[in-house]
Write a structure and sequence with these properties.
There is one protein chain. The chain is α+β, with helices and mostly antiparallel strands. The chain has one domain. Helices cover 29% and strands 18% of the residues. It has four helices and five strands; from the N terminus they run ααβαββββα. Strand 4 and strand 5 form a beta hairpin. The longest helix is centred in the first third of the chain and has 19 residues.
Length: 157
């Protein structure tokens, strides 16, 4: 019986660590978690936008003019933003990053991901877990470079 209680307490403490407030983690542990999770999100929804580079981690507060309750309820929540840049001498994207993932500070769950072509996914209406479970059909964002701005788009007669 003692062993059963010990095992149950250990399991519950593990769940507590997983749902931990990221602000309470030490910086090294938190950054490893953020990079690991953001890499997983990018590879799941836009694998061609993943760049094996050291990302930049910043902090922010969620703002939106969207009136839908699923979005509106998150206004004021704090997040970490993990941004992956790319080599501009090798490719041209619409944004200066290949991918950017926002992760909620209070529960460590992804908020959204935006790719360098402007497309992305959010996790307001269906959580990341719901969108990636075994039965989920994942729409992968296809890789698309920006059109060359030096290109002449006018029809010549």
């Amino acid at each position: 019986m003692k062993y059963l209680v010990f095992i149950l307490m250990s399991i519950f403490s593990c769940f507590g660590v997983l749902a931990q407030d990221l602000e309470k983690m030490d910086e090294v542990q938190r950054d490893k978690y953020l990079i690991s999770l953001s890499t997983q999100v990018i590879k799941k929804f836009g694998p061609d936008y993943y760049r094996n580079v050291a990302p930049i981690i910043t902090e922010g507060t969620f703002e939106s003019t969207d009136k839908r309750s699923e979005v509106k309820n998150n206004i004021g929540r704090k997040y970490y933003e993990v941004t992956y840049f790319y080599d501009k001498s090798k490719e041209i994207l619409d944004f200066d990053f290949s991918a950017k993932v926002r992760i909620w500070k209070d529960n460590g769950e992804p908020c959204d991901v935006v790719f360098g072509n402007g497309y992305g996914k959010n996790f307001f209406f269906l959580s990341y877990k719901e969108q990636t479970d075994a039965q989920a059909i994942i729409d992968v964002v296809p890789y698309q470079q920006a059109s060359n701005s030096n290109e002449d788009i006018w029809i010549k007669e």
